[in-house]
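[job 0417] fold request received: Glycopeptide antibiotics resistance protein
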Amino acid sequence: MPSKTLTEPQPSTTRARVETAVIGVAFGLYLVFLLKLLLFSRVPGSERSLNLIPFASIANYLVGPANVQRFAFANIAGNILAFVPLGAYVLYLRRRARIGSTMLIVAAASVTVEILQWVFAVGTSDVDDVILNCVGGLLGVLAVAGLRRGLRPEAVRTVIAVVSVVAVPVWLFLGFVVRLRM
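[job 0417] inference complete; emitting structure tokens
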């Protein structure tokens, strides 16, 4: 009976490479779209405001008129959902990372976006956005941490790849819909 040579790719190795490539491409597409959505979807110089008071915008949304509350829901949900993939991908890709260090990366990314929005006057720079982005990042981090506790590494990779194939296109579509309504 002929034996398999070392040069023939094993099914699990080929599968692992495909899954890893899918995750990498999905993460890249996510980052490009996130930057487009947050920094390049408005004309530079069109809007510049700053809120450094935690929960001020959220409180205003909750007590505002109905038309403001509709916008508020989209803004709050959008800020949370926008960073769920970042938390998930960063924790997954940094294999030995801890939740705390991953959350520092998520927070730094969010603060960087808010600073760039202010510098280029392409949106409202709001500490509440950072808070909501961190909530979203934490949801992604906790999802991956939960998968790691319950599944083997190969199964975690498969789940992340499948979710990437399904969720990233849905996330991109929802991002466009939310942006169109703003």
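[job 0417] notes: The chain is about 75% helix and 5% strand. The longest strand covers residues 47-51.
[job 0417] exit 0
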